[in-house]
Amino acid sequence: MPGLLSDALAWVVILTFAVGVLSEDRNQRLARYATVAAWVGFAVFWLQLVPHFAFVHKSYVEGVLAVAAVPASLYAGYLLWNGRDSLYVLSRAVAVMGLIYLPFETIPAFSLLGVAVPAPRGVLMETVAAQTGFLVNALGYHPEMIVGEQGYLNTFLFFDGSHRLTVAVVLACTGLGSIAIFAGLIAAVKAPLRRKLRAMAIAVPIIYALNLLRTTFITIAFGKQYMQWFVDEIMFLFGSSDPYMVSFFISDRIISQVLAVVVLVGITYLVVRELPELLTVIEDVLFMLTGDEYDLESELGLERSGA
Length: 307
Known about the structure:
By secondary structure, the chain is mostly helical. 67% of the residues lie in helices and 7% in strands.
């Protein structure tokens, strides 16, 4: 996230979603007002992230998704205001996603009763970096691991001749975002706990393992400059003047991010087979995209117990 104001906005939005969730069975009027307000705030949140993804992060995939999230959030709020109560499921999912992700994004290191408590993001980034380093070494590459710009031991140092190349495992590289999405969706639906746990057991290990393969691939491809293809064109496409970044743009911003979308679709299919109640969310998303109602339960031959 770009800064303190963005973090504060994120917490306000997620807590507003939580108010709506907690009011759903007690005060329908408050639940609707709070949840609709949360969707409007969610649209504002994604809008202010668009420049960050597009121009700072230089990610076309994330930039396009952030742009699309603005009208999608406003439309979800509009539909919920007008009585599409099935969207409470998606709203509960967003609340849980935020409550999982935001502590890692926003809580700094601090001391409690004289005991130093590390920042959650630092612990997670260093853990993933260490595991990535193990895989990189196992494949025959031995970069030095150094403390990065954020003060964590999460950065690999390569040399191309005398030129230093550093690649860091940041929070977006840990798989936390995708894990939070599936955890939120699984927690949001009403289904037996044992099936929810089985769904989590499918999603989380697959996401975590594939993410380690992704960070290993990007680290090696960039560190060894293996993808210096169409250098001028890639630099123009991403608005960069550094030819050394071409391997990173191709391995991360193009190959990995496109494959991540495909993988998430595949994981969604596996999770839905175990937890058909998630079809409610998918049907709502399809309705927002197409304006048509869908009965995926019949089309896929699944049976859900409720929303």
